[in-house]
Amino acid sequence: MNHQHHTHKLDSVQPDGHRLRSRWWALGLVAMTGLALTTVGVAAAPAAADAEHAPSTADERPSADDQRGKRDGGKHDNRGSGKDDKKEGRKGARPKGTPIPCDPDALIAAITLANARGGAVLDLAKDCTYLLTADLDGSGLPTITAPITLNGGKHTTIERAAAVDPFRIITVDTGGELTLNKLTITGGQTDSAGGAILVNAGGALTTNHSTVTRNITNASGGGIANNGTARIKNSKIGRNSAGVNGGGITSSGVLEISKSRVHANTAVAVAGVESLGSVRINHSTIVANQAQDTVGGLFIGAGTGIVTDTHITDNHAGEAGGVLANTNTQLTLNSVTIANNTASTARGGGLATNVNAAVVVEDSVIKNNYATIEGGGIYNDAELVLRNTTVTGNQADLGGGVYNTDNGILTLFTTKIVKNIAITDGGGIFNEANGTVVLNTATGTVVIKNRPNNCSGDVPGCAG
Predict the structure, then answer these.
(1) What is the domain partition of the chain in residue ranges?
(2) What is residue 38's three-state secondary structure?
(3) Where are the beta strands (DSSP E) in 5-140?
(4) Of 124, 150, 400, 411, which residue is most buried, by most CB within 10 angstroms?
(5) Which contiguous run of DSSP H or E holds residue 81?
(6) Are strands 120-124 and 156-160 parallel, antiparallel or unpaired?
(7) Helix (H, G, I), strand (E, B) or coil at 58
(8) Is the bond preceding residue 452 a cis peptide, omega within 30 degrees?
(9) Which residues are CB-contacts of 451 (< 8 A; sequence separation ≥ 6)?
(10) Rounded to whole angstroms, how far apart are CA atoms 125 and 427?
(11) Distance separating alpha carbons of residues 161 and 48, to the nearest angstrom
(12) What element of type H or E holds 89?
């Protein structure tokens, strides 16, 4: 079946937060049945009682995607409470430090002294909220310039008081190495990068079993803005908001996320994780993040990304609901589930690629994603290889499973494109004129049981 249509390239999110807008954005957000996109804005800082303290709270109960992980045999389960975590805890027991009473002034004084003395380990009080009221050069705590470890405990929180002037919680500067153990960081609010934590070039952040929640920036990085090195381990980055990019995390440096959960963050663009440097993500979830414009879950905007044993699910955006690999980037997805993501006004429900990106997807599942226009499961405008991967249950107007543009090169090995739906054409694969699709059917690739047809355009070996 032949159709005349125009190729609409995905909008590129720029490092300064500006987007190259196609004419689709003039339409604005389209209200859709069953969709409730969150309006991004500056809200009042939360009370201490709202902070997420422990996995036993309602906010941290297993979500729908966690339950799906169980049904998958636990292959992608990553709630960070298994045997590996216990082993890690025994091997890397946190060092004992100087006790700090439940007094924000005492904490400020201790960090100041630790900076002067070249570092320290500080043991914060359990069942304590260190309520910050003073703006110390943009942050509530002194800037970290030495190796400092803050050990928390059950219900230990550092929070900006709601009634005071806006400031982030903490800044890590060149030479600073901040480690957070069992702490909740909440209530930060700023007009500059990093609603809760800002890591400058030459600085480093490590979070262990910690939560960064309900922080706000009118710029980028609602939870964390990283320009140095950030390692997020067994932690939760949730319910943060950015007025530009990176609702949960924005990073232009080195970012590592392991056994962690990035959830329910909001932004104008890139609600979950924005990487403009290099990123490795393993055994984690990026879930239920909502962007007004582009990219609900994960954005690889420059450099490289490697994602393994991870769920990217239930994210929403106008375009590129789950994952977007931008121009001139490299992305590898291994044992990843991309499911139930939505592009509510345009293309790329699950995975989207831009020109000159190189993307490899192995041993993964891309299922039940939705795009209003093109590419319910995948929108490909680059070089994309699928190996031993299943694309199923996705839906769009054109290319329910995969939409391949005139610039796209799509190569499949031992891959199943099954039971996808297109409203107009290309239930399994829609290939534009001059696009390239190589099925490699001898390896076991099948394109079957799609509606209204399996393939549209030139797809050798596909029974249309």
Answers:
(1) 293-464
(2) coil
(3) 98-100, 120-124, 128-132
(4) 400
(5) none
(6) unpaired
(7) helix
(8) yes
(9) 400, 420, 421, 422, 427
(10) 58
(11) 9
(12) helix 83-91
- Give residue 364's Cα distance to chain centre: 18
Structural tokens at position 54:
């422990």
Q: Which two tokens stand for residue 63?
A: 């979500």
Q: What is the DSSP string of 443-458?
A: GT-EEES-BS-SEESS
pLDDT per residue over 206-262, tens digit each?
Answer: 999 999 999 999 999 999 999 999 999 999 999 999 999 999 999 999 999 999 999
Assign 93 a pLDDT band (cuts: 50, 70, 90). Answer: low
Cβ–Cβ < 8 Å for 205, 4: no
Chain centroid, CA 152 distance in Å: 26
CA-nearest of 382, 41, 435 to 241 is: 41
Dihedral angle sign, alpha carbons of residues 433, 437, 441, 444? negative
Separation of alpha carbons 263 and 365, rounded Å: 20
Name the residue with tokens 């082993």. 87
Neighbours of 334 (CB within 10 A): 16
CB distance 316 to 35 below 8 Å: yes
Backbone angles phi, psi at 147, to 5 degrees: -70, 115
